[in-house]
């Protein structure tokens, strides 16, 4: 199948498929004339990558997960450790975002939001 069909079947844009090939996350498929010829296995791999990206895994961890996926002698403990580490990192990001949201809410509440030029939001940003 060509890249358009592989993109539709996997849910991964053509641009990202080319990027994944360029960085070696997906092997370049054989060519049929001037077209890349993707297999069902390629589409499955692209879906795996898309699912991992949706869960917040960075490229290097996806590379590791792909290696574990293809290693039938793998230990599930390795996969679990990666997932727990990613979940902990996402928890840290959630806490940081929540702190930012609280700060912005407090600043917005302290701003009159009228025709006057004084604004605690601008003052805070200028500190």
TrEMBL record:
| Major localization class | cytoplasm
User: Cell inner membrane as a keyword?
Assistant: no
Q: Which GO terms describe its cellular component?
A: cytoplasm
Keyword DNA-binding carried by entry? yes
Q: Per the record, a Pfam family?
A: MerR-DNA-bind
The highest taxon in the source lineage is Bacteria
Gene3D superfamilies linked: 1.10.1660.10
- What SUPFAM superfamilies does the annotation carry? Putative DNA-binding domain
MF GO annotations: copper ion binding; DNA binding; DNA-binding transcription factor activity
GO BP annotations of the record are:
positive regulation of DNA-templated transcription
Subcellular compartments:
Cytoplasm
Provide the HTH merR-type domain boundaries.
1-68
Q: Which residues form the signal peptide?
A: none
The record's PROSITE patterns line, in alphabetical order, gives: HTH_MERR_1, HTH_MERR_2
Arranged from A to Z, the UniProt key words for this protein are: Cytoplasm, DNA-binding, Transcription, Transcription regulation
Family annotation (CDD domains)? HTH_CueR
For this protein, the record's NCBIfam families field holds: CueR
* Name the UniProt record assigns to this protein: Cu(I)-responsive transcriptional regulator
| Source organism per UniProt | Sphingomonas glacialis
Gene expressing this chain: cueR
């Amino acid at each position: 199948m060509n890249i358009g069909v592989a993109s539709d079947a996997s849910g991964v844009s053509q641009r990202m498929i080319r990027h994944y090939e360029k960085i070696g996350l997906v092997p370049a498929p054989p060519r049929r004339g001037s077209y890349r010829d993707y297999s069902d296995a390629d589409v499955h791999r692209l879906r795996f990558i898309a699912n991992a990206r949706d869960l917040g895994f960075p490229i290097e961890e996806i590379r590791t997960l792909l290696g574990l996926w293809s290693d039938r002698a793998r230990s599930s403990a390795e996969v679990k450790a990666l997932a727990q580490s990613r979940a902990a990192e996402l928890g840290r990001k959630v806490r940081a975002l929540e702190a930012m949201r609280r700060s912005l809410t407090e600043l917005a509440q302290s701003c009159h939001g009228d025709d006057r030029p004084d604004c605690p939001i601008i003052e805070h940003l200028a500190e």
